[in-house]
Amino acid sequence: MTGQSVLANLHFGREDAERDVTDGLLLRGGFLSTNATRAAVSGRKMLIIGRKGSGKSAICMRLMADGVHGGGKALITPDDAAGDEIRRFELQGLPGDSAKSLIWRYVFAVNAARHLVTHAADAHGRKADSVKALRRFLKQNDELPSDRPGDRLGDRLAQGARGLQTALSLEAFGFKAGVELAHSPSEGARAARQLDVVEKGVADAFAELGCAAAHEPLLLLVDQLEQVWSVEPESNSMVIGLLLAAKHAAGLYGRAVRCLLFLRSDIYDSLSFGEGDKFHGDELRIVWTDHALRELAMARARASTGVAGLSAERLWREIFPESVRGEDTAAFIFSRCLPRPRDAIQFLNLCQETAWLTHGRDRITEADVLQASRQFSAWKLKDLAQEYLIAHPFLERLFPLFQNTGYVVSRAALGTRFEEAAETLHRLFPAYTEALTPSGAIDILYSVGFLGVRRGNDVVFAGGGELPAQPHEGEFHVHPCFREALGATSAIDLRRFEPVVAGARIASGNIGSGGAGNTGVGREYRLLAELRRSCHLILSQVGRAVGLAQDARDEITQRIGRVLDDVNAARPRAGGDGDTEGHLLTAAHYFTALAAQLRASGLDDTTGAGSVAQRIEDEARRLRRLAGGYFGSSGDSGGR
């Protein structure tokens, strides 16, 4: 296959699993089996938890595909009508969580009953009496699939809710609800008793058929709950009720039924209820590593191009450029994504589209990746605000605190910036005043992955079970994903050295020759040597500032290195007409500004930033003395 056709066919998939299934890529080898997938298939875990775009629905769709799971499957995805029905469901005599667990138990029981009605004949070749009873129950309560066009979950929930709140038709199980429930102490107790009858009928059918021993269990998969969730208490009760119902079903139906719940991490982590500690053993959080994302990219590249033997070497050296800004291309791309498949897929596809569709190339160039990177960063900054719009509606208003500045920020500097915006934030979002504090903003920005915290020599971002930002931690880094969109591409906001006083001759090297013994040349050489010495002394001080973040050290080193490069390129003139003195004064003025910017960055003195700033100021003063003058009347308030 030629380079043109490989790039034309290269596609890393859709952003959502449902369309990936429709296109077929997810099923043609583009699915990467992970620990979360294996835990879901094996039944070891019931709760698959991950943030938006982490691959929850991909696992769900994979399990729903033919041939992946040998037992029956039922996918439950609440729409607005279903979500509204569950949120509004209540029963006198029961707290909200318990009432909503009953409606979920009813949903599970009905789905299991519908499965058994067809499964008994198809898999077991007989119609057991208990299954016949289930069919009569479904028919009497309008729950058979053919009884309602479209078979919408919302409609069936409305029907079930009315039945639980009043009376279900239970004659199929030999139970006269109106008579036998007449003396129930409360509406909640009556609903629970009715549900017990239905669930017993389902459990008896599974037992009579011997399903638990004969084949794999029925999978009841609940996904897309975030579509109907809000921060209101009723929404949290809806999710808590789902958890309680799933735990109940696991105990009631045993190995015949397995519930799998796919929940967004921000929703699950916001829940607080008495039995929450009983679910820790059922949890599995999806965590993506750089290595796993590379494997995913390779699997999807092979599936889309049809080149089964496509190697990583060819993908990352021939189709993609070997490096971007001196960094391995794959490392460049995946470090600028939040660690989840959706982001990686979007960035990789954008690189391909930029090269093939925009520029008509047969391979992706470094310029294509850089162009895609700028667009991708803008997308992700906007997407982050949308992802957390319900939980943190003010999130987008915090981004300007990091705009057009260094991506390394101290707690103190962030506090100063926040105070300037606090009045506006509190006015626009009065309900969130308690959360909108400097420390509260840090906690939120860390939890959503916008900020990382420096711990030792590493910068840690949330997502892998790390501790929240601790009060004593004072240095934070904006995630590389968002830096270009914010204009925060340097570690510290340090301006570049531009020799504005030294003449064009020094900058260009267009200098006349002079006698070797000329004393003017000797002085100018000595002055340049002193400037070179100042640069090396500053660089040495930076090297000793081991507490300073590596990115910040690199940034300062780069700025001083530019001064040093300019010194090494300069050639003094015989007779010395002030060019070299001007060069020293320009450098001294730049050093003073650099030290001020470094102090203004708010980096903690314990990192060594204060010592570096002090060394830069000392060298600025020394250079002024050597040059025999000051740079303007206001150029150095401390020049003595």
| Topology, number of strands | 11
Q: Strand fraction band?
A: 5-15%
How would you write the strand order of the largest sheet? 2-3-4-1-5
Let me know the average pLDDT: 84
The SS-based structural class is alpha/beta
Low-confidence stretches: 500-520, 629-640
| Radius of gyration over C-alpha positions, nearest whole angstrom | 33 Å
Coarse morphology: elongated
Distance between the termini: 72 Å
- Number of helices, counting only DSSP H or I runs of 4 residues or more: 27
Major β-sheet annotation = 5 strands, parallel
User: Roughly how much helix do the residues carry, as a percent range?
Assistant: 55-70%
Q: Can you walk me through this structure?
A:
- There is one protein chain.
- By secondary structure, the protein is an alpha/beta fold.
- It contains 27 helices and eleven strands.
- Strands 2-3-4-1-5 form a five-stranded parallel beta sheet, sandwiched between helices. A four-stranded antiparallel beta sheet has the order 8-11-9-10.
- Strand 9 (451-455) and strand 10 (458-460) form a beta hairpin.
- The radius of gyration is 33 Å and the shape is elongated.
- The relative contact order is 0.08.
- Mean pLDDT is 84; it is low at 500-520 and 629-640.
